[in-house]
Design a protein that fits this description.
heterodimer; A: Rossmann fold; FAD/NAD(P)-binding domain; six-stranded mixed beta sheet; 19 strands; globular; B: alpha/beta
């Protein structure tokens, strides 16, 4: 029998692992399991809806999932449809690539007030993730603050600031597009504890803020240092210099008369969110930098805002049966090894960092290790793999979305999109299943 | 036996590899022998294996070569081998929203290989991720013409 491998999670990390395993072990049977009926993880639910070219990476993932021997088992949740022990019993190798889907809390007074959202929830809402599609964030105020200095923070303000025309060729979900169009926001803030050099923006994303049709960008030139400083690793110097150039150019612009203003505030640490029924004020403390570290100054100031989105990182959701590293918010692992035969890959292994392609290099390294450890398994000892899992899923009446069924969902989303939109996502699992197993309407019951 | 072409891949997300897979299929159908080499562990010695190369690379960050190509690129910069026996075609993947650094990874390879004496065959293919076309589709069309124009004659002579 061939090697039987399960990968849990069909985001970039899991699918790069599947790709690399498929290349090194052409005879292996690889099952890619996802709790959603739709594959691709953050490429579908995280990458901004107006960054369609970044989503083109799904073409490679399609090839990976179409490889003979590789299957997609969507709408299968470990803990609901199968147990972790059943996975281990059925497969020679189990790779967990479940990402980091939980927002790190702000951890300040008031952070649970209505009007405060984590970026996983907020981004999941406009990107149609079934878990967050019903978030209905409060956008009825005039000011919104995004806390965090990474690309996710930039995505959130950019998507909010764009006009409907600017989003016409995006795949922002219709419910979110309408809610944003109905909002009357005039002031957006991006807030970072540290300075512009410490921000982990990439230059392209930062530069895009300067091209918004209805939004002026406001940067205090006094917050921009003359140079990147000596604490920046050499590899990052160029991008930091470019970011400073972009910010200087923003700072040099005369104040415009656009309907919205985006204020980029550095060296401001959130201290509290104030309000009774909902967010009314964000309290911040000025920091100063010492070799790139933020040091509190005791000087506080307030921003009147009605919505706060925190984009300060993510934690992995604990996985039943797997030891959890509470401090780091990841699955406990040793260079990817969770226990013999079980591995972690991607954000659940090392925390949320890097771009889509970073996962490819990581996956290749992990797969080399998996293959060398798998080589020590004698051939006769291979397990039953997918056949056993299929039997369990059938017994339990699970509705499994395979790759062909996903393609039905995909086609249905593309065909119902209006205008220049590339697709109109289904945002509920039930809708996805109806599209996956489309029957003529009168035969559905 | 047909002309041998070695495709060297620089990639972050795997797109350049996908493009190379499709390019290989077209070239093999046309009678060429094709070897694909991701740049990950390459050194200058790769250029002693033949004379015709296709560089297929994306761009990362500020117009840089992708991570898997960095060590190879620096080793060429340092060792400065004589590549006057090398001819190459170039498929550069980029995104025009990056403006000045568009297709920078491919441009860097182009400049370096030329500096080291190699000869580029024809104009490079530069693909814009935001163009609405898929790089593999464009590359397949491009490489047919490229091979017909620059390699067919040699095959006839050989």
């Amino acid at each position: 029998m061939s090697q039987q491998i399960a990968i849990v999670g069909s985001g970039p990390s899991g699918l790069y692992v599947a790709e690399a395993l498929g290349k090194l072990l052409p005879d292996a049977a690889i099952d890619v399991i996802d709790r959603l009926p739709t594959p691709y993880g953050l490429v579908r639910g995280g990458i901004a809806p107006d960054h369609q070219s970044t989503k083109n990476v799904t073409r490679q993932f399609e090839r990976t999932l179409s490889r003979p021997g590789t299957r997609f088992l969507g709408n299968v949740e470990i803990g609901r449809d199968l147990t972790y022990d059943e996975l281990k019993a059925a497969y020679d190798v189990v790779v967990l690539s479940i990402g980091a889907a939980v927002d790190r809390p702000l951890g300040i007074p008031g952070d649970a007030l209505p009007g405060v959202y984590g970026s996983a929830a907020f981004v999941g809402w406009y990107n149609g993730h079934p878990t967050h599609a019903d978030l209905a964030p409060l956008l009825d105020g005039t000011a919104l603050a995004v806390i965090g200095n990474g690309n996710v923070a930039l995505d959130v303000v950019r998507v909010i600031a764009k006009t409907q025309a600017e989003l016409a060729a995006s795949d922002i979900c219709v419910h979110a597009g309408e809610a944003m169009a109905a909002a009357n926001l005039t002031d957006l803030y991006i807030i970072g504890r540290r300075g512009p050099v410490e921000a982990s923006f990439t230059s392209k994303e930062l530069g895009e803020l300067g091209d918004l049709e209805r939004c002026d960008v406001i940067v205090d030139p006094q917050q921009l240092p003359a140079d990147v400083g000596s604490h920046v690793p050499e590899k990052e110097v160029k991008v930091k210099q470019r970011n400073l150039e972009i910010l200087r150019e923003f700072a040099s612009r005369p104040l415009g008369e656009r309907a919205m203003r985006l204020h980029i505030l550095f060296c401001a640490a959130p201290v509290a969110v104030l309000g009774e029924e909902r967010v009314r004020t964000l309290v911040l403390e000025r920091t100063r930098l010492e070799q790139g570290r933020a040091v509190a100054t005791g000087e506080r100031f307030e921003l009147p805002v009605q919505t706060v989105v925190s984009a300060i990182g993510y934690r992995t959701a604990p996985f039943p049966g797997v030891p959890f590293d509470e401090a780091r918010g990841i699955l406990a692992n040793d260079e990817g090894l969770i226990e013999p035969g079980v591995y972690a890959s991607g954000w659940c292994k090392h925390g949320p960092r890097g771009v889509v392609g970073t996962n490819r290099t990581d996956a290749q390294g992990l797969v080399q290790r998996i293959v060398s450890e798998l080589d020590q398994t004698p051939e006769h000892a291979h397990k039953f793999g997918g056949a056993e899992i299929d039997r369990l899923l059938r017994e339990r009446g699970a509705v499994v979305v395979d790759f062909e069924a996903w393609r039905e969902i995909d086609r249905a989303e593309v065909s119902r999109a209006q205008g220049a939109k590339p697709r109109e996502k289904f945002v509920r699992v039930q809708e996805m299943l109806e599209a996956a197993f489309a029957l003529p309407g009168d035969e559905r019951h | 036996m047909g002309h041998e072409i070695t495709i060297l891949i620089g990639t972050m997300t795997g797109t350049a590899e996908l493009v190379s897979d499709d390019v290989r299929d077209v070239l093999e159908a046309a009678g060429y022998r094709v070897v694909i080499e991701p740049m990950d562990d390459l050194t200058e010695s790769i250029f002693s294996r033949g004379s015709t190369f296709l560089i297929c690379t994306s761009t990362y960050g500020q117009g840089d070569v992708p991570d898997n190509a960095q060590a190879f690129f620096s080793s060429l910069q340092d060792a400065r081998p004589d590549l006057s026996h090398v001819q190459y075609g170039l498929i550069a993947l980029g995104d025009r929203t990056y403006k000045a650094t568009y297709c920078g990874g491919g441009r860097r390879f182009d400049a370096l290989l030329s500096e080291l004496g190699a000869t580029r065959l024809g104009e490079p293919l530069m693909h814009d991720a935001g163009s609405g076309t898929l790089p593999e589709d464009v590359a397949v069309d491009w490489v047919k013409r490229w091979a017909d124009t620059w390699l067919a004659r040699e095959v006839e002579v050989a």
